[in-house]
Amino acid sequence: MNIGELIRKLRLTKDIKAVVIYEKLGISQSTYSKIENNKYKIDIKTLKEISSILSTDLTTLIGEEKEAKIDEIRKNDIEKDVNVFKLIKSLETQSELLREQNSFLKNEINNKNKEINQLKRKLAK
């Protein structure tokens, strides 16, 4: 959960209207909406004011953001691991197919060499 989502969650949990917060902050509804939608780079001063209005500790807001980033990194790492695993499986399958093709072609070459040798023997007679 990012800071904007956490601010919205805390605001709704405490039954505080957005208008109360953005008026106390002295910002527009549009700017406050951007904060809650995580589309606005919030400065520490504003973040402190919001945490005060929401009667919460600033570290709660920042800690949640860090935890969310750690979770996102973990999720990305898992997705990368899954993709690497799929790639390895695909390469193993392709490798097996190439071994089969190689074996087939070797047999074909051996058969053609036998035919050539038979033709050479016929010509030598």
Task: Characterise this structure.
There is one protein chain. By secondary structure, the chain is an all-alpha fold. Helix 2 crosses helix 3. It starts with a helix and ends with a helix. The chain contains five helices and no strands. The model has no long low-confidence stretch (mean pLDDT 89). 7% of the residues are buried. The radius of gyration is 34 Å and the shape is rod-shaped.
Summarize the structure.
The protein is about 85% helix and about 0% strand. The protein has helices at about 5-15, 20-25, 30-35, 45-55, 60-125. It is rod-shaped and about 110 Å long.
- Overall form: rod-shaped
Order of helices and strands: HHHHH
Instruction: State the share of residues found in helices, binned by percent.
Output: over 70%
Largest sheet: none
What would the average pLDDT be, to the nearest integer?
Answer: 89
State the distance separating the first and last CA atoms.
87 Å
Continuous helix count: 5
The structure class reads mainly alpha
| Rg | 34 Å
Strand content: under 5%
- Count of DSSP strands: 0
Unreliable spans: none
